[in-house]
Structure formats: C-alpha cells, structure tokens
Specification:
328 residues, 5-stranded antiparallel beta sheet, 32% helix
C-alpha cells in the first residue's frame, strides 16, 4: 500500500472554541490508483490533503492512529526528512493555477528550483528536465516558456506548468486539489486525459479533491464522500454511482444536471445548511437535512458495510442504496 490514513482527526483552536474540521477519516491508496475525495466546500477535503504534506496552519492539531507513506510514519518524521519527501516523492497540485506560481520568478526558475532542491543537478540539467516535462504536458515552444513569467501565460498553460512542476521529480503520489477550477470544459477534458496518461506512464497514485462529480465519474477508481469533517461513504467509483447508499451522496448525485430532462426543469437542492463544526455532534451530521432522519440517527453512527469495499455512515443503508444511475 502506498498511503494509509487511519482515523485522522484535525482540530483548529479559535476564539470561539475548537473547530473539529476532520473527524476520524480513514482511507488508503495504491500505486497507479486514483482516489477522489468529494463533498461541499468546507467539508474537510483540502485540509486532509494538506495534513499529508505537513502544510497545516500552526493552530491546527492533527492526530491519527496511522499515517504511513510507503512504510514511513508521517507523524514521527522530522521536518528535514518531510521536506525531502514533499515535492519529491509526494507532490501537490494546488487550487487556482492563476495564483499557484510565484509572479516574481520565471517559469524556468520555478521548475528548476524544485528539481535542484531534491536532486544533485546543475541548473543546465534542471532546465533540460523542465523542458522535457513541459513537452510531456503538451506545451509547445517549451524552451521559450522557461523565460516567461506567470502573468504572460493563460490559465490553461499555467495549470499545465503546475502539473509539470508536480512531476519534476517523478513522485509516487500526486495530490490534485481542484486542478480544473476556473478552466473551461475543453481544457478540463484535456487535463484529465493528460493526468491519466501520465499516471499510466509513471505509475503514480493520485488523490483528486473535487466537488465535480462529472470529473469523478471519468477519472476515479475509488471515491470517498465527506460531509462536515467525516467520511459518510466510501466505495469503488462504479458502485458509488450505481448504488449510492448515504442520503447525502444520493442528494449530490441527484443535483447533477441530466441532459435528458427538459431544459426548464429545476435541479434538486439539499435543504438546510452545513452544521457548525464548533457544535458537538454525537449523531449523524446530516440529520437536520435528511428526509430519512429518525431519533435513532441522533446517536453515534459508524461506517457500515453496504457490500464488498463499500461502506456508508447511515443506519438505513439497505433502504437508501437502491440503484440510481446518474452518470453514463
């Protein structure tokens, strides 16, 4: 197993109290596998990823039973060894390609610095590697691009450069946090094909963080659905789309536009609001928004087996896991 996360929790101290942003999250990923983490904004997706990179804010307090990367305990590793992993064996594609690059340095400088930080390479060797990776991600005139600054490039080009930067040292694991945000659908499709192609060639694992279920249906091997800091469902991608077991997952899938429906038909929405993570919640976090809710949902609910490799945090998994085909 490339990465094992077991019972990860993260608290952030605020003036109003402790914010429990991640609560008992567990998952694993193998080489060559794509795991998608989905859910509404604020559900804990990105901060879970940042904890793996050791990039949490100072006020955050993470804890886990296991946090292992290729046998390395990420909770016990010192800062020097963590820096040796970060950007080398574990890379991250951050949100917003328009702001992920340093505006004060050329593209060549930024790509070369990543490679030289982890390899005993000359600047000439690093630049040659940068040209090669820019060509790999489909950028023409790669040598000329090294001389340019981020503001001289389009959003699509910047996103490809950020992907190239993440691949400079041939990482074993790439974490992609909303990598297609703010890009048009044509460029999104191109980048998805690019990531899958590069994954096959390099054998890397990918953790994709997104709220775009259309993207998930095209790229994921497995999916975990998060809500209010918890994993509410975990399953192989096809099982999740065919038989979603948690009411929240079903609500998300039902909100995806269906081209076969009449154009004026309104999309379903989830009533209510996401609960405050400052408020203690013993029962189901989705209780106030769920049409299946009962008094039994007010007590602690653990993940339950729906089928092989498919779990859901719901007491009514049998009733709620009827077939539902949304993605074709």
């Amino acid at each position: 197993m490339l990465l094992t996360v077991n019972n990860l929790s993260i608290e952030i101290a605020t003036s109003a109290g402790k914010l429990k942003v991640v609560q008992g999250v567990s998952f694993d990923i193998s080489k060559g596998e794509t795991l998608c983490i989905v859910g509404e904004s604020g559900c804990g997706k990105s901060i879970t990823a940042l904890s793996l990179m050791g990039l949490l804010p100072k006020a955050a307090r993470p804890s886990a039973e296991e946090l292992l990367f290729d046998g390395i305990d990420l909770q016990k590793i010192n800062s020097k060894d963590l820096r040796a992993l970060r950007g080398n064996r574990i890379s991250m594609i951050f949100q917003e390609p328009m702001t992920s690059l340093n505006p004060l340095h050329t593209i060549g400088r930024q790509l070369s610095d990543v490679y030289r930080a982890h390899r005993q390479a000359t600047r000439k060797e690093a630049e040659a590697r940068a040209v090669h990776l820019l060509q790999e991600v489909g950028i023409s005139n790669a040598a000329q691009r090294l001389l340019q600054y981020p503001h001289e490039l389009s959003g699509g080009l910047r996103q490809r450069i950020v992907i190239a930067m993440a691949l400079m040292c041939e990482p074993d694991l790439v974490i992609a946090d909303e990598p297609t945000t703010a890009l048009d659908v044509t460029i999104q499709a191109e980048l998805l094909r690019l990531l899958k192609d590069l994954q096959k060639r390099f054998g890397m694992g990918i953790i994709m963080i997104t709220h775009d279920l259309g993207l998930v249906s095209r790229i994921a091997d497995r999916v975990i659905v998060m809500y209010a800091g918890q994993v509410v469902e975990s399953a192989p991608a096809r099982q999740l789309f065919d038989r979603p077991a948690h009411p929240y997952t079903r609500a998300l899938l039902s909100s995806v536009p269906d081209p076969s429906h009449a154009r004026m038909q309104p999309l379903p929405s989830i009533p209510g609001n996401v609960p405050s993570l400052l408020t203690p919640m013993d029962g189901c976090h989705f209780y106030d928004r769920c049409s299946y809710a009962s008094e039994a949902c007010r007590r602690q609910i653990n993940l339950r087996e729906v089928s092989d490799q498919h779990q859901a945090r719901c007491i009514m998994v049998d009733e709620t896991s009827a077939p539902l085909r949304v993605m074709k």
